[in-house]
Amino acid sequence: MVYTFYYTEGGDVSNYFLTSTTFVNVLYDLNFSLFFDMVNFYSNNIHMAGVYDKEYGPVLFHNTDFYALFTVVLTVPFCMLGCKSFLATTLLLAYVSFLGLWKLYQVFIEQFPELQKQFAIAIFFVPSVFFWGSGLLKDTYTLSALGFVTYGVYKFLIRKERKLKYLLILVLASLVLILIKPYIFFAITPGSLIWLFFDKFASIKNPILKTLALPVLIGTMATLIIFTMQFLGEYLGEYNLDNVLDKAVKTQQDLIRGEQYGSNYYNIGEFDASFTGLISKVPAALNMALFRPYIWDANNPVMYLSGLENLFVLAFSVFILLKVRITTLLRSLFSHPLLIFSFLFALFFAFSVGLTTANYGALVRLKIPGIPFYISSLFILFYLNKLRLWRK
Question: Is the per-residue pLDDT at 278 higher than 80?
Answer without folding.
Answer: no
